[in-house]
Amino acid sequence: MGATMDFEQLAEQVDRLTEEVLRIEDEGARESAIRLKEAVEAIHREALVQIVRRLKEDDATLAALRELAREPAVRMVLMLHELIKPPLGTRVQPALDEVRPYIHSHGGDVELVELVDGTARLRLSGACQGCPGSTMTLRNGVEQALRRHAPELVGIELVEEERAAGALIALDAISVAGSAARLPDPAGGWRLAMPLAQLSAAGVTRAEIDGVDVLLAQPNGKLVCYRNVCAHMSMPLDAGEVSNGVLTCPWHGFQYDLESGECLTAPEVQLEPVPVRARAGIVEVRLAGVASL
Ligand code: FES
């Protein structure tokens, strides 16, 4: 944690000095200082782009890059230079939050059910449910917001909760980026994770499957899986403590309800869910549409 504190102190120093620069009264001096900062950052970004591009060319160096990206300072710098994107799920939620007032004005609500093959499956509820105008509501509001926040999404699928059986029925598929939603692969994107018996009974269990880092847990007996990424600063959560179904991030203390993935510290964000199931004592996760580094 010593190195982490050093990094955080440096980051705070940068913030403090930046504020001081912005308060310089002499306009010419202030703009020169800002341009100097931007020029240094541009050099760093150019160098980092070349380093990351080269490391991604080879499986062994890509693995080393992924390992490095778990270090707080490295991850933060890569994120600052937009070389690591926040998880897709954490960008879909702000998009939905953005249009929620509009959906509310139609007497309904919208929620993300899951991300599959790069397609966001959304559920409308309230007055929107089953309403013929639902598709237009999505086109006009949700689609535009998702394009801004998560342009790599390939589609939106509107699902409705069947009142009698609780099953999900696909109602419609809408192209977001002008491309059709993909057909599922033969395995449906499901991958073997581990024997169910290997899961921690009280805590979380980390697994890396096809390069995707996930957390598995069984709060209240319900099998759940999330990307091993904190919504605060995208640090790994697997060393976090679990108490009464609440996972606490080991880095800065964000807390999550393990059963729902909701963030108790900042309700506007949440853990990115990964579809999971157990069959014949084996845990399987569906990774299609879940991005790795
Ligand atoms: S990374 Fe800051 S609370 Fe998790």
TrEMBL record:
What keyword terms does UniProt attach to this protein?
Answer: 2Fe-2S, Iron, Iron-sulfur, Metal-binding
Q: What is this protein called?
A: Rieske domain-containing protein
- Which superkingdom does the taxonomy of this entry point to? Bacteria
Q: So what does this one do? A: May be involved in the formation or repair of [Fe-S] clusters present in iron-sulfur proteins.
Give this protein's Gene Ontology molecular function annotations: 2 iron, 2 sulfur cluster binding; iron ion binding; monooxygenase activity; oxidoreductase activity, acting on paired donors, with incorporation or reduction of molecular oxygen
Do you know which InterPro entries this protein is assigned to?
A: FSCA_dom_sf, NIF_FeS_clus_asmbl_NifU_C, Rieske_2Fe-2S, Rieske_2Fe-2S_sf
Q: What SUPFAM superfamilies does the record point to?
A: Fe-S cluster assembly (FSCA) domain-like, ISP domain
Q: Name one GO biological process term.
A: iron-sulfur cluster assembly
CDD domains, alphabetically? Rieske
Any keyword Transit peptide?
no
Mind telling me which Gene3D superfamilies this protein's record contains? Fe-S cluster assembly (FSCA) (3.30.300.130), Rieske [2Fe-2S] iron-sulphur domain (2.102.10.10)
Q: Does the keyword tRNA-binding apply?
A: no
Cite the Rieske domain residue spans from the record. 191-285
